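WARN no homologs supplied; continuing
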Amino acid sequence: MVLHWFRRDLRLEDNAALAKAMATGQPVQPVFIFDTHILDRLEDAADARVSFIHQELTRLSQEIAVQGGNLWVVYGDPMVWHQTWAADPAIEGVFANRDYEPYAGRRDEAVARIYAQEGKWSKWSKDHVLMEPREVLKDDGTPYTVFTPYSRKWRTHFTPEHIQAYPTPTGGWNPQASSHTMPSLKDMGFEENTQKVPSREIPATVLAAYEAKRNFPALPNGTTRLGVHLRFGTISIRALARVAYPDHSKFLTELIWRDFYQMILKHFPDSPSKAIKPAYDRIMWESNETHFEAWCQGKTGYPLVDAGMRELNATGFMHNRVRMVVASFLTKHLLLDWRLGEAYFASKLLDFDLASNVGGWQWASGSGCDAAPYFRIFNPASQLEKFDKDLKYVKQWVPEYGLPEYPEPIVDHKQARERCLARYKEGLASASLGL
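OK structure emitted
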């Protein structure tokens, strides 16, 4: 038999590696590992993402059971589990879909060595992206660092075959009963979180009006809110692209941005901790814990910023337009290190994806690929006037806005802007001089 290792692909339909495992004609044994190297870094015992994964694995297990198979769900170190499976003479090899994050890359290389040492194979497939990091490069083989030329090259490579669906299995599983009982959340040291997760149904009506509505956070159907499902692969990126192509070009562009950031993370694996543009690591950030706490709690005195942070804290979601505003505010108005904001988003977002999160924060701070110039500083008041003029979004999350108990702005916009421009100019000048 062969293994299919589920990771960021928690679905049976349109799953590249799973379809290839089934195509061998061998019985397929599906497995999932709750990776302690990842779980041990989580600080919240009620982390909603762990509950979501557990819930989706229960669904997946039921779907497989209906077809006569059983899903092995285990907890621990992937190296230990794969050493056990690789040594099993009944197992010929393992299929899995690629993951481009730095830790995942190191882990998967180690797993491949484990199977090779036993004289067995491991086969890895493209599934999480439409174009892999190595598929869209400059003519000289180096990675793009600006989105527009990357997007043009991406579109010249793209064909409808890139979004063709893989067949959904209807059987072919290893029928043997398993001694692996799915661990409970409690077994792993976690608690159930009942935070509501958006449906994984693809809302075609949202895509039809996406370009017109996507920037307005008060609109209930302005965006798809499918980020969490793309993150954990409960829907296929190809399925979403099939709905977007060819009529909804703006939404397809957002999927290209997603591929772009996956490519950047693969080629710049230090980007979660270092500025992609090294000069920006010379910026002298403030260390004002009071300001950071006010930002985290949504008590800055800037209503659009506060509404976004309160929505994030309550739901694990934040509208993309508002994400840009709050990130700019932290890095430009408060002059706090973008890595603080990136880490906070990482701890709260249901749809947290390392590549997109790091890419977005470096964009906001000016230090990343295709970044906003450092002198581009979002004015929260202007953004509010433009995208939430009637205050529907703000009133939903900041009901005390306009009342005496709402705090005064913690910084003055004009003064903060001038300080930011001076500080950035100073830092970049010192970098250019090698000081």
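The chain has a mean pLDDT of 96.
OK
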